[in-house]
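Why do we care about 3D structure at all? Because function follows from shape, and shape follows, mostly, from sequence. That is the central idea of this module. The next example makes it concrete: a single protein chain, its amino acid sequence, and then its structure expressed as tokens.
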Amino acid sequence: MRTTTLSRLIRFGLHIYGIQPYVPSAVVFRLYWIVALSIAQIFQYRYVVVNIHMDDFSEYMDGVSSAMTSSLLYIKLVILWTHQRIFFDVSQMMSADWHDSSKRSNSRIMTDAANLARRTSRWIVGMQIASATFYSAGVLAANANSPEKLEPYERELILKMGFPFNISTNFIYTVVQSVQFYHLFLVAWGITIINSLLVTLILHICGQIDILREWLTKIFSKNSADLMDKITMRSLIIKHQRIIVFAENIETLYTYIALMMLLSDTIITCCLGFIIVSSLGTPNVVAILVKSVIFYISMNAEAFIYCFCGEYLSAKSKMIGSAAYDSLWYDFPAKESQTVLFLIARSQKRLTITSGKIVDLTLERFTSVLKASLSYISVLMAMY
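And the structure:
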């Protein structure tokens, strides 16, 4: 029987990226990522600055998009590291929910939510890893299709970087490519772990909302005499308050991550869209499409995941008030009925995730990101 909503893949990733709070290895892993990402970012943005006037604008945009993707992971990790106390509280609340479910008949809802979270996490990780693999394969295919690039320093690298040394031999080129693939793979995995964590937290809290709705239906049932000993009005209010606190903690963890994600994904998808459109009709079109299409889809999928999570949480939170209103609360004593009215009133304030505490994450917000990205692509195509 499952005792946690977090899958093994996510729990392992939380340790590797130093997100798991208050464990001895966290400091070591955080130091590693600070050094590794800082060095990579220096070389990536050195390429962006040095080649700002290069003739091949599509290749320049490729360097910008890959640099910003690594920057986004860096920002996500720093935000989660600085909020380790909040994440620890969230983990404790999840453990308490599972412990409470073992005493009541709620294990089915919890298990279904955990299984759905596990399957969704696998899908998210699979897409991002496929994106990194195809991106690397596209670079290798472009080198193979360009026989004029015989010298190592003329060949394309997986990640556009400006090194302080020359890649003068095949051995150096192979070492650099291998290190870059390793780094790209870990960056892709880190992004998926953080995204999968959000999905898992949302599915867990939505499972708790379903349990609360079930309690509201049963406690006011005319056949609930034996149930009243287990579920009381006090337990209903405590459950509802825990759900609110849990949602506020998710908001604290992810609001600024969502803000940076929407801003950066708009620019990254714009760059990738420009690369895809401008590559049509060129000799290396197949290699460029292999490298960029899956990357483009995965970045749009990331924005969709965040916006869908916000929409799903808001929709679920509205159901609490509906479930309370549809129950037979009016057939019970006035004291209990008044308590339900307060619960209905509190449920009118939707639970949601915001982007930097400015706008709510909704599917409408996702369409706005797509429209903005496509508009920028049109401008770039007109200019170049």
